[in-house]
Design a protein that fits this description.
Radius of gyration of chain B: 25 Å
Strand content of chain A: 15-25%
Oligomer: heterodimer
Low-confidence stretches of chain B: 1-25
Order of helices and strands of chain B: HHHHHHHHHHHHHHH
Helix content of chain A: 25-40%
Mean pLDDT of chain B: 82
Shape of chain A: globular
Largest sheet of chain B: none
Distance between the termini of chain B: 30 Å
Low-confidence stretches of chain A: 1-29
Largest sheet of chain A: 10 strands, mixed
Radius of gyration of chain A: 26 Å
Helix content of chain B: over 70%
Largest interface: A-B, 43 and 44 residues
């Protein structure tokens, strides 16, 4: 068949397109930029994991470093820098490291860096915020360049969680870089082994990264430049996303979730997050020193309506502390005193030392939905029980300071970014727990939580212990459990590779993301 | 601030609000020297006043900051901080020292041009670098907005005054009232909704620094500048209209009309320049607002300005950074006041006799 001029001409663009596509394909990792916004924050003081303390610092750190193990989106623990691990005995953990992992400066990550990371965290002179949390770790040694042994004083089941790429501070730092730069400089020009290499940091404005070309996971990261603007006003971030000025927004305001669901160029993603929202009570002072009064208030809260009123339905009404995202420790069976029941609430009120008209100051925060969190709580209790609770709003930091000093009566508040049931229950309700500000003390709860901490078979044996402890706590009502809010993210529809996780792993989520 | 206004009067006085602005005869050299001395004295007085204002301002900001509860340790170390970590942070950054000592060590370093380092907003970055990174953006957007506001208000104010009581006047005056009473963040979102999301002409968020690309800065700064300019234009045009109308009724304008000069000639030569003085003063007052009052707009459009740095630093209780920003604000306000005074003196037609 003769090829005419027309056919040739028609074929030319195709040829050109084919050729160009090949070039474009090869060049994609070179030119592509990913713009992922951190909203609601602008404070970043250090990018040294050992020194990091506040959420936005960790959001960034997760993209710069790796940890020994990591969470999958359904909260299973798999290897990251560690290829495998074993327990020769209940207090010993041996990790086999992946070989050939490169830091951003080209040097290889070995067991020496791992040992250095943990030794530094344990050094009182270094002053890491997680030193106390890692206290059960007594010894970290390098067996050979790719084997690390961690010893604990007692069997310590939360250890693996504390080695994941979450708010742990156990991200592996580069020994050589830390020693040559000094800790303070390292916090500003970090060297990690993660997918993103920091290239520019405009404080209070944005951070820019280049792809770590020697990253150990093949084909990642898929973009060659990452820009992270720090956007204080989350509504503005939504506008920027809608206009195509961003590819990803890590958290969206609850009030905007319906609007986002309707936008065709945006994929809105939502799942129960890792958090607990509750009203903490001062059980040492009237009126919350009376268990019947506490139960009455707990049963006066209609949690389904509460979730609608406070966060527009963006939460799971909760009856306990442990969030739904940790399935093996999450309790589905109803807790008696955490159910809305006005009649029984009044019965409990009648049993208590205090009656209708009892006054209390409920101390909340003035920002966004937090304000409603306090107001709706007070309104529900007042309507059902005829008590006379009053709202007091203090800025979050002042309110927290008062709560942690057990100075006040009740605080609608919450914990976020805790990944282990031990953090939710042991830290908050064990008589020695450091977050147990109101000195709640139930020996049976203590016993169960200690047993759970020592039980290395967590899913089958540890889970039931946590559930049992949580039920006892719910009966005592030292806190009134309210809800487990959703983690909401928004990403442009044309972006591929986004995988939502309940722990909001921002920096760790970005490597596979690319706009198509 | 009162000083600006008073000194403007002083200038007018100096330039002789004498009986009639007639030609001066036989001005003796002694008077000229005397006047020069007076000017030098005046400038010295202004400098001393400004320095005093700086010191008082810095002290007030310092005391206010320390009067609010919360501290930098909490902001930097978060809710998981152990008491000993908080204690060592406070020790390291001298937060336990007596207030007077803290102020003194800050002030003596500042006097040598060292504004210190951020401790809880962007740990380790120098306050000077935070200011240097944000002030030019604020100045750029501020100047951009001012130019827009001047253009809009000069046109609207003059038209409204010269078409007094007619439909153009009613329209311009109503528009001014509407723009003044709009909340600024609302206007910002409306502009984003129309010009970014619906029309796609301007970015919804983010700002290109003038140093990186002037065209980019003009493009990305357009909406924030407009959001700032619109309510300002409302204030300016009302002010201009009022003073123009007042000047129209002045005796010398009436007599100029009686002499048969044309409308345009009277407007330009008799009315406009005189009316500009209160107008320029109003602009000077608004220039202060451009520094710190536009934080909401900066937030909406993502302009990394000094106002945002100062507010974020205040939330993080980063005392040094707030103090540094405050000093820069005060310096600029003093400079603007000074320029306004000079300009008003220059504009006064009686000056050129």
């Amino acid at each position: 068949m003769p090829i005419g001029r027309r056919t040739l001409l028609a074929g030319l663009p195709l040829l050109a397109a084919g050729g160009l596509r090949d070039i474009a394909h090869a060049a994609a990792p070179e030119g592509q930029k990913l713009r992922a916004a951190l909203t609601g924050f602008s404070v970043i003081n250090t990018l040294d994991p050992g020194k990091a303390a506040v959420n936005p610092e960790f959001f960034i750190i997760w993209g710069i470093y790796n940890t020994l193990v990591k969470f999958t989106p359904d909260m299973k623990i798999v290897g990251d820098l560690a290829e495998s691990w074993t327990n020769p005995d209940p207090t010993t953990w041996e990790f086999k490291l992946r070989q050939g992992v490169k830091f951003h400066d080209g040097s290889e990550l070995t067991s020496e860096d791992v040992v250095f990371t943990f030794t530094r965290l344990a050094d009182p002179a270094f002053g890491s915020p997680v030193r106390k949390k890692m206290a059960p770790v007594t010894e970290v040694t390098a067996i050979d360049p790719y084997t690390v042994r961690i010893k604990t004083d007692q069997p310590f089941s939360p250890l693996l969680t504390y080695l994941t790429n979450t708010r742990t501070s156990t991200q592996i730092v580069c020994k050589k870089a830390v020693q040559s730069m000094g800790a303070e400089q390292y916090g500003r020009t970090p060297i990690g082994s993660g997918p993103w290499k920091l290239t520019d940091w405009r404080p209070n404005e944005r951070l820019t990264f280049a792809a770590h070309t020697e990253y150990f996971e093949p084909g990642l990261p898929r973009c060659s430049i990452l820009e992270v603007p720090l956007i204080r006003d989350d509504a503005s971030a939504i506008n920027a996303l809608a206009a195509g000025g961003l590819e990803f927004v890590n958290a969206t305001p609850y009030a905007d979730s319906d609007r986002l669901k309707k936008m065709s160029n945006i994929v809105f993603s939502s799942m129960p997050g890792l958090n607990a929202r509750f009203t903490a009570l001062n059980i040492q002072k009237p009126p919350f020193d009376d268990v019947h009064f506490r139960r009455a208030v707990s049963m006066s809260i209609n949690r389904d309506a509460y979730v609608q009123a406070v966060v527009f339905g963006q939460a799971v009404p909760s009856q306990g502390y442990i969030p739904k995202a940790i399935p093996w420790a999450y309790d589905e069976t109803p807790h008696e005193y955490a159910q809305f029941n006005p009649a029984r609430a009044k019965e409990e009120l009648a049993k208590s030392k205090y009656g209708p008209g009892t006054e209390a100051i409920i101390t909340g925060f003035p920002d966004a939905w937090w304000k409603r969190m306090t107001e709706v709580f007070v309104d529900m209790a007042n309507k059902v029980l005829g008590v006379n609770f009053k709202v007091e709003l203090l800025d979050a930091r002042t309110a927290f300071t008062k709560w942690s000093a057990n100075d006040g009566q009740a605080w609608p508040t919450g914990w976020i970014a805790l990944c282990d049931p031990d953090e939710y229950l042991f830290d908050c309700f064990h008589s020695t727990g450091w977050r147990n500000f109101t000195k709640y003390n139930n020996p049976e709860v203590d016993r169960l939580l200690e047993a759970a901490r020592h039980e290395l078979d967590r899913e089958t044996k540890g889970g039931p212990l946590y559930k049992q402890a949580e039920r006892l706590i719910a009966d005592d009502c030292p806190s009134i459990f309210l809800m487990n809010t959703f983690s909401d993210s928004a990403v442009l529809a044309k972006v591929k590779g986004f995988e939502h996780t309940p722990f909001d792993g921002f920096g760790a989520q970005l490597a596979p993301m690319v706009a198509t | 601030m009162g000083s600006g206004r008073n000194s403007r009067l002083w200038w007018q006085h100096k330039q002789g609000q004498g009986p009639a602005p007639g030609p001066r005869q036989g001005q003796c050299p002694w008077t000229a020297t005397h006047k020069k001395l007076k000017l030098v004295f005046y400038i010295l007085l202004r400098v001393a006043g400004s320095a005093a204002m700086l010191v008082v301002g810095a002290i007030v900001v310092f005391l206010l900051l320390h009067a609010v509860p919360g501290d930098a340790a909490m902001a930097a170390l978060g809710d998981a901080a152990s008491p000993d970590a908080v204690a060592s942070f406070r020790r390291e950054h001298h937060l336990n020292d007596p207030l007077l000592l803290q102020f003194w060590s800050w002030a003596s370093a500042a006097a040598h041009g060292d504004l210190g380092q951020s401790i809880s907003l962007a740990g380790g970055f120098s306050t000077a670098s935070l200011i240097a990174g944000s002030l030019p953006n604020t100045l750029f957007v501020g100047a951009y907005a001012l130019v827009m506001a001047l253009a809009i208000s000069l046109a609207a104010g003059s038209i409204a005054a010269s078409r007094h009581g007619r439909i153009e006047d009613v329209l311009a005056t109503s528009a001014a009232i509407v723009t003044i009473s709009m909340p600024d963040f609302w206007l910002g979102y409306v502009l984003v909704l129309i010009f970014s999301l619906a029309l796609g002409w301007f970015p919804a968020y983010g700002f290109t620094r003038p140093g990186d690309s002037l065209a980019g800065a003009l493009h990305s700064g357009f909406l924030p500048a407009l959001a700032i300019a619109v309510p300002m234009a409302g204030i300016f045009s009302r002010m201009l209209r009022a003073t123009l109308l007042e000047t129209f009724r002045r005796a010398y304008v009436v007599s100029a009309r009686a002499m048969g000069f044309g409308r345009g000639f009277i407007f330009w030569h008799y009315v406009f320049r005189n009316a500009l003085i209160p107008y320029v003063t109003a602009i000077g007052l608004q220039a202060r607002y451009l520094l710190g009052g536009v934080v909401v707009i900066e937030r909406v459009f993502g302009v990394p300005g000094i106002g945002s740095v100062m507010v974020d630093a205040a939330f993080a209780r980063d005392y040094g950074v707030v103090q540094g920003c405050a000093v820069v604000f005060l310096l600029i306000v003093v400079a603007v006041n000074f320029c306004v005074d000079l300009l008003c003196g220059f504009l006064d037609p009686k000056r050129v006799a």
